[in-house]
Amino acid sequence: MLRFVLKFGTSTLTNGTPRLSLARMADLVRQIAQLQDNRNEVVLVSSGAIAAGREVLGFTDLPKHIPQKQMLAAIGQPRLMSIYEQLFRIYDKTVSQILLTRSDIIDRRRYLNARNTLDALLDQSVIPIINENDSVATEEIRFGDNDNLSAHVANLIEADRLILLTDQEGLYTSDPRLNSEARLILEIGSEGFSEEIWKAAGGSMTGLGTGGMVTKLRAAELARQSGVTTFITKGDAESVILRIANGEKCGTIIHPLLNKLENRKRFLLAGQFSDHALTVDPGASRALRKGGSLLPAGITTVAGSFDRGDSIRVLDSNKKAIAVGLANYSQEDIVKIKGLKSSEIESALGYSYGDEVIHRNNMVLL
Asked: Over 50: is that where the pLDDT of 164 sits?
């Protein structure tokens, strides 16, 4: 099973026209449904809300200022989601809508909330459809484009593949619409992006979206540092998503600098020298070593002052560090729930972030 993040640009969804192309969207949905049926997990980052808003208003000529764009996004987002919901219903697939801003990723607690929400949706085979919260995002909390957002989402959920669908075959040595001798760059390895590659990435020529090839290259740079393999390819190529999932080389492939496990370990292990620690009983210690999560029942003592989302150590009864992970509850909360059953968390705190104090996906054994 692989975890995919797919990014659909406006030009892909409209098929190069001013309107959303229902035929194109239906074909993309068909591929996603089959991808999930093949036991993969899928998150969709979709543009198109502003284009949908223009269509609803009859393509009224509006100034290209932020308030007008936010208004169009607010009008178009419900229409876009309605179309997706109806198309996915054909394949008995359930979808959800998540709107994010940069602050949801930067803030430690909100980052963990977003990650846990997405994990919960994927566990229930729900397909999350994500867009930037354009109707409220101000300049200082904007991702700026959905290419950038999709790379952050890929990092957030530790995806295996990021597929950026666009109106070109991939990244070329120069703009193929201006230079007939431009060559498709098939793969970029662990070496850094050269100055020539950055120069080859141009801006959007369709006028339909906010991105261009340069934004996709920036997204791929972020994704590769997170251990994610990125594909930049043409959105209207026949069954391109399924072909990539089946191992076919399509468009431009940008390989990661680290694998997912190495990337997560580097991040989590930064907390192994922290004074924040939980001591657990022998039963919990054995469960952790077998790959389990840390539940409140196994915690005996709490040390240090930390918040939800901080990296903390886990000690066995001999005070030997056995793991490090991200706390799902603050120090104050854990003091109240240590030794309790998971089913008692909500009654003790008045709320619950889940059964686990540290989920196994957010933990590395030492």
From this structure: yes
pLDDT band for position 55 (cuts 50, 70, 90): confident
Predicted confidence at residue 210, as pLDDT, reads: 45
Pair 188, 316 in one domain: no
CATH code of the domain in which 271 resides: 2.30.130.10
- Pick from 27-31, 116-120, 274-278, 324-328 the range whose average pLDDT is largest: 27-31
Q: What is the per-residue pLDDT for 113?
A: 83
Of 241, 258, 275, the last residue of a domain is 258
Alpha-carbon distance values, 213 to 44, 51, 206, 233, 252 (Å): 19, 19, 12, 11, 11
CA distances from 335 to 51, 208, 235, 300, 349 (A): 50, 53, 51, 9, 11
Write out pLDDT tens, residues 216-273: 888 888 888 888 999 999 999 999 999 999 999 999 999 988 766 666 666 666 555 6
Q: Which residue has the tokens 């790379």?
A: 151
Tokens coding 271: 């907390």
- Per DSSP (E only), the strands in 9-60 are 41-46
Question: Torsion-angle region of residue 192: left (phi > 0), alpha (psi -120 to 50) or beta?
Answer: beta
User: 218 and 201 in contact (C-beta within 8 Å)?
Assistant: no
In the chain, the amino acid numbered 67 is P
Task: Based on the fold, state whether residues 276 and 197 are members of the same structural domain.
Answer: no
Domain that holds residue 250: 3-258
Amino acid present at 355: D
Average pLDDT over residues 162-168: 92
DSSP line for 7-22: EE-HHHHHTTSSS--H
